[in-house]
């Protein structure tokens, strides 16, 4: 797992590596890999905060999608936000890794791969370490 993380981060610029470290990306990457490997039930049993709290299959599917995107290096950068995750799941995703939601700022009329939408820049605080992190979630504009 750390080999995959090293390979992923080795390809990044120094600025992107620093951004990843500020967002606690290596920690979150490791937790996401574990979640994908053992699934929500075993993860919950072994987690100190019994996360994920949700039993909703739609939320759990979005958590899986979010963890898969973390494995690709998405979410911590404004240029590569999470995609196709519900608003409810965006909160649950960072709660999965022991973060508490603090604030949100939205950027409207953003284009991501020719798709218009909104990027939510969400600030979270780690429950134990108290470190503040910002993660980004893209929501496409609904078709009229």
Contiguous helical run count: 5
When the domains are counted, the total is 1
What's the SSE pattern? HHHHEHEEE
β-sheet strand percentage: 25-35%
**What profile does the largest beta sheet have?**
4 strands, mixed
The number of strands is: 4
Q: Structural class of the secondary structure composition?
A: alpha+beta
Overall mean pLDDT stands at: 95
- Spatial strand order of the main sheet: 1-4-3-2
Backbone shape: globular
Determine the fraction of residues in helical runs and give it as a percent range. Answer: 40-55%
First-residue to last-residue Cα separation:
43 Å
Uncertain runs are none
- Measured on Cα atoms, how large is the radius of gyration? 15 Å
What key phrases describe this protein's structure?
144 residues; alpha+beta; 5 helices; 45% helix; globular
Please describe what this structure looks like.
The protein is of the alpha+beta class and 144 residues long. The chain has one domain. 45% of the residues lie in helices and 26% in strands. The protein is built from 5 helices and 4 strands. The chain has a 4-stranded mixed sheet with strand order 1-4-3-2. A hairpin with a 2-residue loop joins strand 2 (99-112) and strand 3 (115-126). The chain is globular and about 40 Å long.
């Amino acid at each position: 797992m750390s080999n995959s993380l090293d390979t992923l981060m080795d390809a990044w610029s120094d600025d992107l590596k620093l951004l990843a470290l500020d967002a606690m990306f290596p920690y979150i990457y490791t937790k996401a890999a574990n979640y994908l490997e053992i699934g929500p039930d075993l993860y919950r049993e072994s987690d100190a905060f019994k996360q994920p709290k949700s039993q909703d299959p739609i939320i759990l599917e979005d958590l899986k999608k979010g963890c898969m995107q973390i494995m690709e290096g998405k979410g911590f950068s404004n240029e590569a936000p999470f995609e196709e995750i519900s608003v409810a799941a965006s909160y649950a995703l960072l709660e999965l890794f022991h973060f508490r939601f603090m604030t949100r700022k939205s950027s409207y009329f953003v284009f991501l791969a020719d798709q218009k939408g909104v990027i939510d820049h969400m600030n979270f605080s780690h429950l134990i370490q108290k470190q503040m992190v910002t993660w980004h979630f893209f929501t496409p504009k609904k078709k009229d």
